[in-house]
Amino acid sequence: MIEQFGNGLLLGIIISVASVALSLLYGVTRIVNFAHGEIIALGAIMTLFFSNPIDSKILFLDRFAPLGINFSISIVIAILICGIFGGLLEIFLFRPLRKSEVGNIAVLVVTIGLSIFFRHLYLLFATGRVQNFPLELERRQTYLFFDMTPRNFQVLIAGLIVMIFIGLFLSYTKIGKAMRAVRDSNELANVSGINSDNIILFTWIASSMLAGLAGIFQAIINDVRYNMGFLILLLIFAGTVLGGIGTSFGAMVGGLLIGIFVQVSVALPFMEGHTEAKNAVALAIMILILLFRPQGIFGQKERIS
Amino acid sequence: MTIFLTTGSIYLVFILNEEGPLRILFNLLTFAGIYGLAAIGLNVHFGLTGLLNFGHASFMGVGAYVTLLLIPHAAGREGEITDTGLTFFPALVIGIIAAALFGLLLGLPAIRLRGDYLAIVTIAAAEIFRLLVRDLESVTGGVYGIINFSESLQIYKPEFLINFSERFELNSSQMWVGLLSWISIFIVLILLRRLTNSPWGRALRAVREDEDAVRALGKNAIWLKLQSFMLGAGIAGLAGVFLAFNYGSLQTTTFVPLLTFYVWAIMILGGVGSLTGPIFGSIIFWVIISETDRLAQLIFENANGQQLAGVRFILVGLLIMLLMIFRPSGLLGKKEELLLDVKSS
Amino acid sequence: MLKVHNLRKRFGGVKAVDIDNITFEQNQLTSIIGPNGAGKTTFFDLISGFTEGDEGKVFLNEKNITNSQPFSIARQGMVRTFQLTKVFDRMTVIENMMFSGSNTKNDSLFRSLMKLSTQKNNENLIREKAFEIMKDLNIDHMADSYARELSGGQKKLLELGRSIINDPKILLLDEPLAGVNPKLAEEILSIIQKLSDQGITIIMVEHNIEAVMKISERVVVLAEGSVIADGNPEKVRKDPKVIEAYLGSGNE
Question: Among A112, B149, B170, B335, which is 20 to 30 Å from C139 by CA?
Answer without folding.
Answer: B335
